[in-house]
Amino acid sequence: ASASAVADALAHQARLTKPAGSLGALEEVAVRLAGSGGVCPPAMPAPAALAIFAADHGVHAQGVSPWPQEVTVQMVANFLAGGAVANAFAAQVGASVTVVDVGVAADLPAGPGLVVRKIGYGTADLSIGPAMSAGDAVAALEAGISVARTLIDSGARCLITGDMGIANTTASAALISAFTGLDPAEVTGRGTGIDDETHARKVAVVRRALSVNGIEPGTEPLRVLAAVGGFEHAAIAGFVLAAAEARVPVILDGVIAGAAALTAQALAPASIDHCVAGHRSAEPGHAAALRHLGLRPLVDLELRLGEGTGALLAHPLVCAAVRVMHEVATFDSAGVSEKPM
Amino acid sequence: ASASAVADALAHQARLTKPAGSLGALEEVAVRLAGSGGVCPPAMPAPAALAIFAADHGVHAQGVSPWPQEVTVQMVANFLAGGAVANAFAAQVGASVTVVDVGVAADLPAGPGLVVRKIGYGTADLSIGPAMSAGDAVAALEAGISVARTLIDSGARCLITGDMGIANTTASAALISAFTGLDPAEVTGRGTGIDDETHARKVAVVRRALSVNGIEPGTEPLRVLAAVGGFEHAAIAGFVLAAAEARVPVILDGVIAGAAALTAQALAPASIDHCVAGHRSAEPGHAAALRHLGLRPLVDLELRLGEGTGALLAHPLVCAAVRVMHEVATFDSAGVSEKPM
């Protein structure tokens, strides 16, 4: 981050016609983006582009989700037809929608809005061995990097993470446990809706995955990712790395993005300077990931949908935070009396 | 609220291609607006119109705010020039901005965007007697009603409350204490920024105001409003009543709107069905008001600016909640498998 842009942003905030600190968390966002972008005021984070990374998970076979695996493919079709919640929210905030097949367990018909960067037909079952090879993890990272670069080259000035993959909260919990050191029971949630028995099985699966794969504190990040991640986690980590390289902000969605961002942090800590936490989902692992990332979520409405929905909702808030830096008058320019000290 | 529209909204939510309940608080908003509007899906709450009700307060003489009273007039000029945070946020969400002088302590030059409905040159000091006469309270209510009707007649399909008035958090605390029955110490905050000594004085002023004016549990609402309210509180209460009559949703801003909505609730409880709590401000009285109103705030970012800023930030969230009801595919229509029960 640029120290001088941070200092300029703090000084500018203090001159604006509002009580000091009265915009709360939005002031931090504006200062953060000034620092990460290296310019004050920070560039308006628009237009925004949502990329939904879709993939399947071998661990689905362990009964960790009540949803059939084919819902991943069905929802990809729904995104492409414009019928999902992510489409409605993207329309609301003016974001483009790109769907990326990084590893769905079926072949998808080509069509506008679909980018095929398939690494495999779903990962292997992480509870009995590595989910993917190190080579595949790198290929998935590269897919995310490539998508980010293409969107930025096309004019996007804010990237928004999205994901779709039945059973992907299980892989997320394993990644979060590995990177934060917290016990699987603390970071494994109920995903899109499971009962107590399924939840207990899910915790046990996460625990076994870490043990079977020999994941310990300090295990090298790429090995963690390959052992217990999903193709979409790897791709989102790459997406974050490429956005950071281009100094374009990324709004992170929920627990899948949180797990992916922990991976990016482990690989390149400064990449997180470019991230804004769009929301805090109902998943316990997400709150743990955000604490470890040092990010404060902007929206906290008990969403647990994924797809990028929470991050999309945060986009107008991020824009508002930055817009203040461009458009609001100063005490001097507006002739408004300052509070006496 | 329309019971059949509520039932239709709940049934429609269950058919949409998303896990049940996965949109958290936004689902409640959509169902609530269906019920209050009497139609499912509810009408899109756009375009939105912000009305900033500005007034001064005789209690300023008690030293409850560090800001000079003339900041009210200066900020009105800033709103009209487009230089305030509320203007930047309104631009972000596409809301119009109307400034209403309901009782600023100076004459304002006429200009576009300014509606003059001045009831007086600031209220009287509520800590030594009634802030206004009952007649003036009614006149201020009527001003708010008139502004709401004009905005709705001009096409607004969502009203947003805003306020400006140095010392208006003191009157808000008195109204909130009166309507919730909570002690002044529990509901009196630090406004836009005061030290411990000023805060202690402010609590004492609120306590004295309620005592001097003989406000007790069960005091008639109009008498409470006239005794310890501000012209902008009365006007915002009228604004809420008129919006409810027209079945147009209102997004409430912070503690001033909360105090005004408690007044509207006391006068006509069903009017609150049409209200959405835009945010929860840092003022303790605001949280108390929201609990009493039964409203859950959508944005919670420690804002304490007023002007309508918190409500403006919530507008895209409310739109997103409603848009889901219009645009998202159902499991049937999209061919997505439902979760087995």
Automatic annotation (TrEMBL), chains A, B:
EC nos: 2.4.2.21
Protein's UniProt keywords contain Cell wall biogenesis/degradation: no
Broad enzyme group: transferase
Keywords recorded for this protein, A-Z: Cobalamin biosynthesis, Glycosyltransferase, Transferase
GO biological process: cobalamin biosynthetic process
Entries under Pfam families matching the protein: DBI_PRT
SUPFAM superfamilies attached to this UniProt entry: Nicotinate mononucleotide:5,6-dimethylbenzimidazole phosphoribosyltransferase (CobT) (SSF52733)
Transmembrane feature ranges: none
Active site per UniProt: 307
Record InterPro entries: Nict_dMeBzImd_PRibTrfase, Nict_dMeBzImd_PRibTrfase_bact, Nict_dMeBzImd_PRibTrfase_N, Nict_dMeBzImd_PRibTrfase_sf
Keyword Transferase part of the UniProt annotation: yes
Catalytic activity as recorded in UniProt: 5,6-dimethylbenzimidazole + nicotinate beta-D-ribonucleotide = alpha-ribazole 5'-phosphate + nicotinate + H(+)
Segment forming the signal sequence: none
Metabolic or biological pathway, per its Swiss-Prot or TrEMBL entry: Nucleoside biosynthesis; alpha-ribazole biosynthesis; alpha-ribazole from 5,6-dimethylbenzimidazole: step 1/2
MF annotations from Gene Ontology: nicotinate-nucleotide-dimethylbenzimidazole phosphoribosyltransferase activity
Function text: Catalyzes the synthesis of alpha-ribazole-5'-phosphate from nicotinate mononucleotide (NAMN) and 5,6-dimethylbenzimidazole (DMB).
Family statement drawn from the similarity comment of this UniProt entry: Belongs to the CobT family.
HAMAP family noted in UniProt: CobT
Name of this chain's protein: Nicotinate-nucleotide--dimethylbenzimidazole phosphoribosyltransferase
Classification lineage: Bacteria, Bacillati, Actinomycetota, Actinomycetes, Streptosporangiales
Gene: cobT
